[in-house]
């Protein structure tokens, strides 16, 4: 039996597919920049398509809606960030105090320094905190919930017999908040004379201070609760 000749990858269909992929890439790039700068509500489909040099119907055709495009960008940006910098795992037998220090240094390094390699992630997250969209629930479930759970395991180990779901939850919030505030509050911190690190080599010093503060607070609660 004669074999079928292999299908050609060139021609009108291949060209159409290539054009579609190029249009999607332009839309993602343009929308990422605009959403990061202005937020979801203040960015229009017309602006996105104009910046991407695409037809105004392109967003609906490729992503279903402006919300679908925004969701794609939010999830992709955080996925890329976490794939390159996964949170260190707290394993059985690890010293919880040392694990707390590693986790805090990791979170500070990602949010303050390495985030610049994924420029949309931090800005989009800040917009979501101020003006949540439908994408926030998925962002929390896929990315922030696992991070919080890892911190909570460390906090529980530090609290020992004083551990309870409520106290663990509060302490976890306090620790993550100490880290995240250095990104979200960086402009006021600069004006107060405490600018957050901009170089990776400067992160460990801040991480040690935050860790000492958080560790002392958790131990104090363990002794008084």
Which features would summarize this protein structure in a list?
elongated; Arc Repressor Mutant, subunit A; Tetracycline Repressor, domain 2; 2 domains; 10 helices; 225 residues; mainly alpha
Describe the structure.
By secondary structure, the protein is mainly α. It folds into two domains: 17-64, Homeodomain-like (Arc Repressor Mutant, subunit A, Orthogonal Bundle), CATH 1.10.10.60; 78-224, Tetracycline Repressor, domain 2. It has helices at 12-38, 45-52, 58-63, 66-84, 96-112, 119-130, 135-159, 165-184, 186-192, 203-224. Helix 8 packs antiparallel against helix 10 (203-224). The chain is elongated, with a radius of gyration of 22 Å. The model has no long low-confidence stretch (mean pLDDT 89).
């Amino acid at each position: 039996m004669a074999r079928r000749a292999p299908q050609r990858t060139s021609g009108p269909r291949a060209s159409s597919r290539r054009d579609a992929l190029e249009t999607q890439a332009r839309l993602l790039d343009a929308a990422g920049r605009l959403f990061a700068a202005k937020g979801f509500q203040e960015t229009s489909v017309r602006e996105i398509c104009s910046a991407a040099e695409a037809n105004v119907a392109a967003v609906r055709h490729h992503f279903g809606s402006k919300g679908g495009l925004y969701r794609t960008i939010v999830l992709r940006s955080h996925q890329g960030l976490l794939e390159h910098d996964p949170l260190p795992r707290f394993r059985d037998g690890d010293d919880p105090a040392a694990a707390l220090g590693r986790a805090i240094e990791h979170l500070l390094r990602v949010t303050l320094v390495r985030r610049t390699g994924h420029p949309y992630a931090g800005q989009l997250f800040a917009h979501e905190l101020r003006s949540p969209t439908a994408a926030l629930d998925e962002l929390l479930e896929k990315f922030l919930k696992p991070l919080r759970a890892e911190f909570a395991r460390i906090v529980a180990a530090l609290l020992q017999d004083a551990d309870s779901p409520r106290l663990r939850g509060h302490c976890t919030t306090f620790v993550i908040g100490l880290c995240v505030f250095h990104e979200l509050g960086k402009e006021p911190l600069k004006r107060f004379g405490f600018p957050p690190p901009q170089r990776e080599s400067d992160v460990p010093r801040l991480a040690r201070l935050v860790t000492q503060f958080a560790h002392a607070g958790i131990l104090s609660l363990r002794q008084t609760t």
